[in-house]
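Sanity check record (used in CI):
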Amino acid sequence: MENIIQNICVIKDRIHKACIKSGRCPHDVKLLLATKTVPAERILMALRTGETLIAENKVQELKEKYDTLTAVPHINHFIGHLQSNKIKEVLKYEVSCLQSLDRLELAEKLHQRLLFEGKTMEVLIQVNTSNEDSKFGVHPDDAITLVREVAKLGTLKIKGLMTIGLLSADPEHVKPCFRLLKSIQQRLIDLDIPEVEMEELSMGMSGDLEIAIEEGATIIRVGTAIFGERMYPDSYYWDESITVNA
Ligand SMILES: *Cc1c(COP(=O)(O)O)cnc(C)c1O
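Expected output for Pyridoxal phosphate homeostasis protein:
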């Protein structure tokens, strides 16, 4: 059994050191707990240490853990590939920010539902910075067009960008992915599109959070380094064409 409390301390220390190294303030980097496959009771342990930001990849898990997690106040983001037929549930289970908005078709359907419910929702645009087919996200060349289209809808409040980046044993290989995301963010800031905010850059995970922070991350998403190794390979979450026999 992993020691969640101690692991969170270690992560906080890594965030702190990376911030100091790059002349940033540790308060400007939010820690998001990536909770896929983690039982609700263990997530509660993390929330009780004072963490507030958590995210699931699948609507099914969001649903299963929802009741148990109401015991401690927290904020739900969503970081997985979202199918349009799951939109209602994402709203029902109080996801406040969809970090994985990667296509106009999804944005339009979400918009329709939000209009119907009289709500708005925060979103990050997910960009595929690593050119790997298996990962979701809008192509970097199409990101600005998508931002413009989504901004026109009115119910989706764009707060920034998200990327997964290249998965490599050498974290230096992921740096160009993070730089690319940062450069798209800068272009969007320069364009100053109405209703578009660009303060958030969600990038960096257990293995590469230091590099992400150096490159300007404002949200890092950490799973394994806090909750321990997962049973399923990440491809199960990142590529729906792969099925796992559980
Ligand atoms: C699982 C996941 C993470 C966390 O990855 P770790 O390597 O376990 O820290 C971050 N972002 C997304 C989108 C994920 O699916």
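The chain has ten helices and eight strands. If this sentence no longer matches the regenerated tokens, the check is flagged for review.
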